[in-house]
Amino acid sequence: MATVYGTTSWSALPVGAALTGPIPANWRADCDALAFGQIQWSTQMIQDPRAQRGRRPAAGIAPLDAQLRRAALPLASPDDLDPLIDAIGDARFVLLGEATHGTSEFYTWRAAISKRLVREKNFSFIAVEGDWPDCYRVNRYAKWLSGAGTSAEEVLHAFERWPTWMWANREVVDFVAWLRNHNHRLAESQQVGFYGLDVYSLWESMTAVIEYLERVDPEAVPIARRAYSCFDPYYEDAQAYARATALVPTSCEDEAVAMLRALRARAPEYPGDGRDAYFDAEQNALIAQNAERYYRTMTRGGPTSWNVRDTHMVETLDRLMAHHGPLAKAIVWEHNTHVGDARFTDMTRHGMVNVGQLVREAHGERPTEREGVMLVGFGTHHGTVIAGSEWGAPMQRMRMPLARAGSWEDLLHHAVGRDSLFVFDGTNDGGIAGLDAPTDHRAIGVVYNPGAERWGNYVPTIMPRRYDAFLFINETRGVDALHMPVTIEGEVPETYPSGM
Q1: Relative orientation angle of helices 408-415 and 64-71, to the nearest 10 degrees
Q2: What is the C-alpha separation between 439 and 462, in angstroms, rounded?
Q3: Which of 87, 95, 244, 445 fits as disulfide partner to 43, beta carbons 3.0 to 4.6 Å?
Q4: Other CB atoms within 10 Å distance of the CB of residue 236
Q5: pLDDT by residue (tens digit) across 127-179?
Q6: How many CB atoms lie within 10 A of CB 78?
Q7: Residue 34 near residue 8, CB atoms below 8 Å
Q8: How many CA atoms lie within 13 A of 83 on its CB side?
Q9: Domain ranges, ordered by start, for the chain
Q10: pLDDT tens across 343-372, in order?
Q11: Which of 366, 342, 458, 464 is nearest to 405 (CA)?
Q12: What's the start-to-end Cα distance of the chain, in Å?
């Protein structure tokens, strides 16, 4: 018997429902979806009753209104970011969140913050919740490397893994074009990079390792092909591999680990192809190892696969910092569920860790401690959002209903009613009396059902402990995705440029 606290397709289940008897017909589809983030335990959650304990009722938040109005700072132009830039100070890790994976303003404000950090504080790179191989092509384009593409739109349009709109959108096109222009005429060591932190690219990364060896060490190619041939029966289908390892006690773990070990053992022989080229190959071998574990554990339920993924992202971030030298500084773009410290949500109760928690524990609980870590959350009250109705479904521009009554976003809408910046002071209540108890905080993933918000899409959160600062955008709109068409529910489909 398995207790289910997170799902998208089982929305009719009562809270904390237990599955007994035959496995439902849709079990396979839901397990497959878990691998790719459709079921994100904290964003698509049917709330565990235990998570309700201590949650602030709607009637209990009214006294906060005056406090929040006093704390709310204007947020209308990049100049209004001054208090945030000042609070970041000398911190070397700045993690920028988002409450959805398809909101234009989250991308444009993260871009505005990143531009200021690059120009004013010499940050070294941007690392995003995206696949390494795709993002590394963006990195090559931004650094003017040969064969990397002729335009930012061309490079980003090549992102083909669903959900494509996360990075193949015009908001990111504009930022990458700016980044390339910024890097123009800078020495290679001063150029700002763009990298992917995620673990999903199992087959693409194995292919990249073999292509690297074909250039620098042809004699090692047969060794790599033999190691990775373990995955051949699954025809580049990660879901098929996950199902197979769930049904029988077999895996390709040993082969993936051995290939990474072999590549590292021969690293001293590969200096001629450049330090960055070897780093890219080693990272792809690491992804193959960690992705194998991720897909192998995803069908087992529980927090393991989530933790494998976030631990991998932190490992990649630390590798990038080491690669860029002792003065390196990192900007991270990921969902709030990765950026906001899991210890101040109900994620900890479910045995989950996340990037924000792990980076704080390793590098400093506050911007002024040790190397300095700044966690910045984002939120919205209403508007539109790009998402899919199920995993792999066509993207839609969906209406996002008004935030749930009593939630953090509902409170800000009624107390402040405008776009605002909040910078917390590091105390339990962030300097806003009464803000030290859990409050529902909106979280929308790539799969979204606006009609199911009464069951999920909110994470109980102690806001000033989970984040160091927060950007509230009262009304937002969906990103301008490159891969069209996009439809809007209940309306005539919008017409977009055909692009390439």
Answers
A1: 80
A2: 6
A3: 445
A4: 13
A5: 999 999 999 999 999 999 988 899 999 999 999 889 999 999 999 999 999 99
A6: 15
A7: no
A8: 18
A9: 58-193+331-487, 202-298
A10: 999 999 999 999 999 999 999 999 989 999
A11: 458
A12: 50
Contact 199, 291 (CB under 8 A): yes
DSSP per residue over 437-492, as a string? Answer: S-EEEE---SB--GGGTTTSSEEEE-HHHH-SEEEEEEEE-B--BSS---EETTSP
Q: Which long-range contacts (CB under 8 A, 24 or more apart) does 225-234 make?
A: 227/255, 227/256, 227/258, 227/259, 227/262, 228/255, 228/256, 228/259, 228/288, 230/255, 231/202, 231/203, 231/206
Partner residues linked to 374 by β-bridges = 94
- Residue reference for tokens 């994976």: 101
CB atoms within 10 A of CB 11: 14
Q: Are 437 and 465 within 8 A, CB to CB?
A: no
Q: What is the DSSP string of 368-400?
A: TSTT-EEEEEEEEEEEEEEEBSSTTPPPEEEEE
Q: For residues 228 and 296, give the distance between their C-alpha atoms in angstroms, rounded to a whole number.
A: 15
Q: Where are the beta strands (DSSP E) in 250-349?
A: 330-333
Backbone angles phi, psi at 14, to 5 degrees: -70, 165
Per DSSP, what are the bridge partners of residue 317? Answer: none
Smallest Cα–Cα separation from 231: which of 146, 156, 288? 288
pTM over 0.90: no
Specify the residue for token string 């990458």: 176
**Which pair of structure tokens corresponds to residue 466?**
């989970």
